[in-house]
Amino acid sequence: MPATDYQESSAALSNIGRSLLSLRRDQVHAMESPADGSASHEVELEWFQRQVADRFHDLASAPSDELLSLPWIRKLLDVFLCCQEEFRVILFNNKAQLMRPPMDRLIADFYERSVKALDVCNAIRDGIEQIREWQKLLEIVLCALGDSDVNNTNMNINIKGNNNCYQRSLGEGQFRRAKKALIDLAIGMLDEKDSGQALAHRNRSFGRNNKDYHHRSLGHFRSLSWSVSRSWSAARQLQAIGNNLSVPRGNEVLATNGLAMPVYTIGSVLLFVMWALVAAIPCQDRGLQVHFYVPRQFLWAAPILSLHERIMEESKKRDRKNACGLLREIYQMEKCSRLLGELADSVQFPLSEDKEREVRQKVKELGHVSDAMREGLEPLERQVREVFHRIVRSRTEGLDSLGRGDNHE
């Protein structure tokens, strides 16, 4: 990432962040009296920068085994909602400034970015629904190969009205049913870029190589009530959100009474949060190669750039390179189901005690993954919905403040 190589042509931008605010404060104070409330305005803007920094430092402190997990993604969305609300308060306190150039242009650009983020939210909710389909296949496997001691009190599975679906003895019928579900799961979790060669390999590993079955199953998973058009691209949408997102020039900071800084900050936060969601959750035409640059002089730049770098490194790992999503629970689901599938493909009947014990252990591990998915997906979906509505509400309020509340896209 070429962040440290950035060079600003204007001398006024040699120090960005607090230094720009200090520059503006020095010049404004030379023209205004202390009674104008300028000091409290400066405190408000600097407090916002510090709050954003503190929140992302907390996110960046997560260890590797928590990064991109369901709890971490939910925490990320909480951070965005808090930043969005604090930004809304700043705009509310400075309504008169919003209608003056260049602030009117800067805030209009931000609202245009936020509209583009709504499509990402819709795509992410579709991705969550897709994960739920995989969850149903996990439940079939757990029902077929589990026993009364494996997550019996937590599963709450109701397949064909049978709540006592765990069997103490494992026969060929149970394995056939489980293997079919595991094949469907493997097909569903394939990234589109990897859906050819890897699929044939996995089908052979399950003793099955049926191209017609591949197309039927893959088509089923790709036709799940998508909220975005078939030609929509998450990668292109992220690029659109980031277009023209540039650090405010010194004269813009001065002309906007410092408000250009929080506008740039919340725009950068919006881009990063949408990018992280696309990285973690399956969605249409995922792509992480989005230009993301923040000068390191900003208080919040270091933790965001650190997170960006860690997520990119995660995406380049050999076992994650072709993943449909970097969500940690998806990785665990794929790994556990693959190992169980390989084990199921190798068993011979009658089943030995050692082999049965090994199978049940793998099933138990898969059950833990299923529990984590079940407990985390619904709260995550609620948060994504809340982000969507908060963006809409903030934009509506902003347009009303600009006197253009009746204009609709």
Give the helices and strands, then pairings.
Layout: H1 18-31, H2 38-60, H3 70-93, H4 95-98, H5 103-145, H6 152-155, H7 172-188, H8 197-205, H9 211-222, H10 234-242, H11 250-255, H12 260-280, H13 301-316, H14 328-346, H15 353-401
Helix pairs in contact: 1-2, 2-3, 2-13, 3-12, 3-15, 5-7, 5-10, 5-12, 5-15, 7-14, 10-12, 12-13, 14-15
Short synopsis of the structure:
The protein has helices at residues 18-31, 38-60, 70-93, 95-98, 103-145, 152-155, 172-188, 197-205, 211-222, 234-242, 250-255, 260-280, 301-316, 328-346, 353-401. It is an all-alpha fold and 409 residues long.
Structural class: mainly alpha
The residue-averaged pLDDT reads 81
Strand content: under 5%
Order of helices and strands: HHHHHHHHHHHHHHH
Helical stretch tally: 15
Q: What do these coordinates show?
A:
The chain has 409 residues and is mainly α. Helices cover 66% and strands 0% of the residues. The chain has 15 helices and no strands.
Characteristic key phrases:
66% helix; disordered N terminus; 409 residues; single chain; 15 helices; disordered C terminus
